[in-house]
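Format notes (please read before filing issues)

Several people have asked whether sequences and structure tokens are stored in separate files. They are not. Every record keeps both together, in the order shown below: the sequence lines, then the token lines. Line labels are part of the format and must not be stripped during preprocessing.
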Amino acid sequence: MDLSIMIPELLKALPLTLAITFTAMIVGFCLALIATTFRVRRVPVISHLADLYVSYARSVPVVLQLFVAFYGLPLVVGLLDVEDFVSPTVAAILGLSLYHGGYLSEVMRPAYLAVDRGQHDAADSLGYTFRQKLTRVLGPQAVHIALPGYGNSIIYLIHNVALVMYIGAADVMATAHLVMEQDYNQYQFETYVVLAVIYALLCLIAWLIVRFFELRSSKFTPKAVPAKTIIMASV
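Then the structure lines:
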């Protein structure tokens, strides 16, 4: 198949791929924020459930999580009598959101714990509540620490979106296979090269955006005090 025909066919499926990615990214971020909060504060029972969720998301292969979502979601919504809600796209979003949330929680929690203990004590001495301490003192510093890992998690999410074809979602990868079948698999190499370029561009754009915010957030990191200043102050 001519590239002038193949590329437009693949680009037609790109909006669905982006929609699945962005939705899973937003829902996964919310799940990670909730799980991290419970894991940091060590709420009885709930913290253990959050640990179990993170362990599931990190330990089970992503494609298997998609199958669990695809076959498990109809069982849940069947009890609510909303079978029309079930579709491969919804199952893909659910599976990827659970994966992304669990993975991202393991980025957020170490970032929060990496903030110097003195920052915690300073916020406590000012009488800040946990919410005020998080939003005014610890959050901005933890965000800067977490951004490189967050960028990696987004790139992994983009990679794993290619797996949704196994549960019937018509993303770019699934469309590419349909295009190849129409030509009796004669242009596999060319098709996969085009796919590689598309995914590489998506990952590059994601990395540039995260890198931009990483540079902007550097102003929230505490500046190191020169050793000469410390010596003079102690004299």
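For reference, the curators noted about this record: DSSP finds ten helices and no strands in the chain. Confidence is low (pLDDT under 50) at residues 224-235.
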